[in-house]
Amino acid sequence: MKEICDELGISEATFYSWKKKFAGLSSEEGRKIKDLEEKVHNMERELQTLNSDKEMLQSVLKNFFTTNDKRQAVNYLQDTFDIGTRRSCRLLDISRSVYHYPYNIENH
Asked: Which 8-state DSSP code applies to residue 106?
């Protein structure tokens, strides 16, 4: 057994741990587990991509749009997608206090 484990690059303890874990599973159950693990891996990768996309878009908002533009975008999100102020502000990286602060056009 040691030679096989060495050839595969795993320890004997790992082999016996895997054997104990998977010995009672049918091939169908093993396939289901593998499919689910692959699905989880793909979802984690997609989540990383979405988080990265969100950070990039928030950076664009921060650097290229005025606070008033962001206020209008919050209103747009609320009206179009029927979401609350808290979520809209979080998506656009604007604090709720800034969103609610009275904006006086004459002074700006």
From this structure: G
Q: 4: which 2 tokens? A: 């096989």
Q: Which two tokens stand for residue 56?
A: 């990039």
The range of the structural domain enclosing residue 46 comes to: 25-64
| Local confidence pLDDT in tens for the 108 residues of the chain | 788 888 888 898 988 888 887 777 777 887 888 899 999 999 999 999 999 999 999 999 989 999 999 999 999 999 999 999 999 999 999 999 999 998 765 555
In a domain, 1, yes or no: no
H helix intervals, 1-108: 2-8, 12-22, 27-64, 67-81, 85-92, 96-100
The pair of three-digit structure tokens given for residue 60, joined into one six-digit string? 């664009």
Same domain, 59 and 71: no
Q: Are residues 54 and 71 in the same domain?
A: no
The number of folded domains in the chain is: 2
Per-residue DSSP letter, 107: G
Is residue 42 a contact partner of residue 51, using CB atoms and an 8 Å limit? no
